[in-house]
Amino acid sequence: MRPVRACLGAAAAVALAAAGTTALVTTSASGATSALSDRWYAAAPYLMPLDNDPPNAADIMDATGLKAFQLAFVLAPNGGGCSPTWGGTSPVSSDTAVQSVINTIRAKGGDVSVSIGGYGGTKLGQACADPAATAAAYQQVVTKYGLHAIDFDLEEPEYENSAAIRNEIGAAKILQQNNPGLYVSVTTAGTADGTGWFGKQMLLEAKSQGFTPNNFSIMPFDGGFNGAASQTTALTNFNSVLQSTFGWDQATAYAHEGFSGMNGRSDTGEYFSQADFQTVLDYATSHHMDRFTFWSLNRDRQCTPADNGGRTSGTCSSVAQGSWDFAKYSVKFAGVTPPTTTPTPTPTPTPTPTPGGSCKAAWSSTAVYTKDNEVSYGKHNWKAKWWTQNEVPGASEWGPWQDEGAC
């Protein structure tokens, strides 16, 4: 997660049975002494507590009944080193701001998971020498905040680095062993066939190390998706990938599978409405999947007219909605009925781009492109700003591709 997910901020059957399963119980400076059910950690939406105009977690809890939050993102220091920071800039060791957010949530009967990685920035798996050193850095986060859950968000550019992924998977296994009951999720990019080549290599690394988290989750957006049907197809295909990789049957694979969506307008201009979330939620619960989450609570509110002009924002969804509409689907996944509120506005129809010129040759993940090379992707033409390979056009507004408009 995610260009708008990370870069703006960096400025910047198991599933249903899990509702009664408790996780690690620990005491720390955070004051945490007990855990929620695993089902709540599986339902926790992402929240950037320091960036992207953070909403008040207590207000969300009151309005929706939500109890768990996925705090993002822990990275290596921007200046180098193997110690955990928030967003590459705020050391976990001296943090008080995120601790205050956690205290507020826990005082209301909730809890948090922490997500490491995301899209962009330097990850600890890249900076630390080996799995043990990587795990030691993450253990500082687990201990400081008394965590019962942690998420490894392994995507660009880290998941293209086999040594870094070896460190991350190895660290996740060590944390799992050293913190009995710790809920561990692994999140990676989604594609139409489930996940891409690098995602499949990550799964093979987990298999080779004998590591099985609570779930492997995919993010079926920013890859030519169009509503819920394309997402459920990707989840079905990912289930087959899990079966073939680990030798699981279908039910076991679903019990270790998760969904991580993006509410409203995605980074590449896809739109996902409240109705799409309901469809995927129905799929996840009917197939007894282990996780249902989304990016992000910072975006789970109506844009102002000035912000709603067909662009992706880190602070609002760019679709018609009531505040925290999307969080209510997480609450439902946890098995709770959200409080009754005023009716949700009719979602904004997905705009249809006006065709421009003819489309260039289709972008290829294996081709090498140099400055001024042109391709088509997602019914838009794109021009390379510099040398690039396997970087999806439009995946980041700071990326190598310049949007030349619809084709």
Short description:
This protein has 407 residues and is of the alpha/beta class.
Which key features would you list for this structure?
single chain, 407 residues, alpha/beta, ten-stranded mixed β-sheet, three-stranded antiparallel β-sheet, 13 helices, 32% helix, 18% strand
Question: What topology does this entry show?
Answer:
Elements: H1 3-10, H2 14-17, H3 38-43, E1 46-47, H4 57-64, E2 68-75, E3 85-86, E4 90-91, H5 97-107, E5 111-117, H6 124-127, H7 131-145, E6 149-153, H8 162-178, E7 183-189, H9 197-209, E8 215-219, H10 228-246, H11 250-255, E9 257-262, E10 264-265, E11 271-272, H12 274-286, E12 291-295, H13 327-333, E13 368-369, E14 374-377, E15 380-384, E16 388-389, E17 401-406
Parallel strand pairs: 1-2, 2-5, 5-6, 6-7, 7-8, 8-9, 9-12
Antiparallel strand pairs: 2-3, 3-4, 10-11, 13-16, 14-15, 15-17
Helix pairs in contact: 7-8, 8-9, 9-10, 10-12, 12-13
Describe the overall structure.
- The strands form four sheets. Strands 1, 2, 3, 4, 5, 6, 7, 8, 9 and 12 form a ten-stranded mixed β-sheet that branches. A three-stranded antiparallel β-sheet has the order 14-15-17, with no helix packed on it.
- The chain has helices spanning 3-10, 14-17, 38-43, 57-64, 97-107, 124-127, 131-145, 162-178, 197-209, 228-246, 250-255, 274-286, 327-333; strands at residues 46-47, 68-75, 85-86, 90-91, 111-117, 149-153, 183-189, 215-219, 257-262, 264-265, 271-272, 291-295, 368-369, 374-377, 380-384, 388-389, 401-406.
- The protein is an alpha/beta fold and 407 residues long.
